[in-house]
Amino acid sequence: MSMQLYAKGKANFSIVTGVPPAKLPEGAVPFVRASETKKELTVNGRKVILTTDSAKEASFNTKLVWLDKSGAIQYTLSDNRVSKLTTNEMLAVAKSMIK
Fold it and tell me: Has residue 27 been placed in a domain?
């Protein structure tokens, strides 16, 4: 796993790369907070999962997750709660990374 932190004024965001999680056991579902909203997007031909979290105690506002072409590396791009980066700005960062 690798993590890089970036700043744009007071708005911090991180990029984490690692191995995709293993398949869940049969009948298990990922935990999703009631305050989270998930949406599937396509960025440069790649499936990207956009998650937003409206809870005040959440660690992020916006999170984007996608796999590389081979499916061997998962990328997670997320901001922090005080970030003023818009979803479109976060998508622009993802778009610059997805080739």
Answer: no
